[in-house]
Write a structure and sequence with these properties.
Number of helices: 3
Shape: globular
CATH class: Mainly Beta
Organism: Geothrix rubra
Mean pLDDT: 93
Family: Belongs to the pirin family.
Pfam families: Pirin, Pirin_C
Helix content: under 10%
CATH topology: Jelly Rolls
CATH architecture: Sandwich
Largest sheet: 7 strands, antiparallel
Protein name: Quercetin 2,3-dioxygenase
Number of domains: 1
Radius of gyration: 18 Å
CATH superfamily: Jelly Rolls
InterPro entries: Pirin, Pirin_C_dom, Pirin_N_dom, RmlC-like_jellyroll, RmlC_Cupin_sf
Length: 288
Amino acid sequence: MATKPVRSLVPGLPTQDGNRVPLTRLVPGQGQQGGEAFRAMDPFLLMDHFGPMVLPPGTDAGFPPHPHRGFQTLTYLIQGAFRHRDSTGGSGLLEPGGAQLMNAGAGIVHEEMPVPEHLETGGPIEGVQLWINLPKAAKGSAPGYTDLQPEALPWQALPGGRLRVLAGTWAGTTGPAVTPARIAYAHLELDAGARFQQAIPGGWLAAVVPLHGTIRIEGTEVPADTVALLGDGDTLALEAASQVSLMLLAGEPLREPIAHYGPFVMNTREEIEQALQDYQRGRMGRLD
């Protein structure tokens, strides 16, 4: 058994998106630009830790209607509530401990906005959105939306902590999110001093991202809102240096060309230009 060391540490980039929602952009992080940034975490394209924040009464902070094409989004909520609507007619309520898997595929327009109660009274919001690339053969697939309610994502008790599996298999538990790209994704919470380890398939990328607290991997400390991209080895192994909440990521790289512009991720620049035209002409649908 060979433990994967830390190959690189990439601090997140504090920014805002949507209607003034503060977030940390973890993938691509600080110092990562252009196409190489998207290939560095193949098959993962983007990861945002939004919040934690307390929405004031009357706020409209959220993510108004916007398009996507060529990938999937997996949005996981830690606290608060969002309501999802999209141009296929999909809708749902995203609650703490729940997630939503959206296939942008050939094109979709969606929004994620605070629930009416938050508009009136305010309240806390925190979550993570992950963009997962689609292989070329699936980029033209039908768009759609799947609700993953909290009861489908139960916590699993571990020595010194607990684990919630969203996709793939971790610690013998398989998550409900199914994607064309082969991935494994989970939320792990550990007490200070607790350890966790997991075998990773050969050839897969592996990374860990603390949201709160600090972990150690082979003597390297990884602070909050930092991506630790792991190197060669067959086992992900970490120790909590403090009480910690973190995301675990692993995936088989697609190794396909990436062309990116805003909310569109395709294989060629011509496909990006077509996506822009299709969106402008309403071919991805609309939200009233």
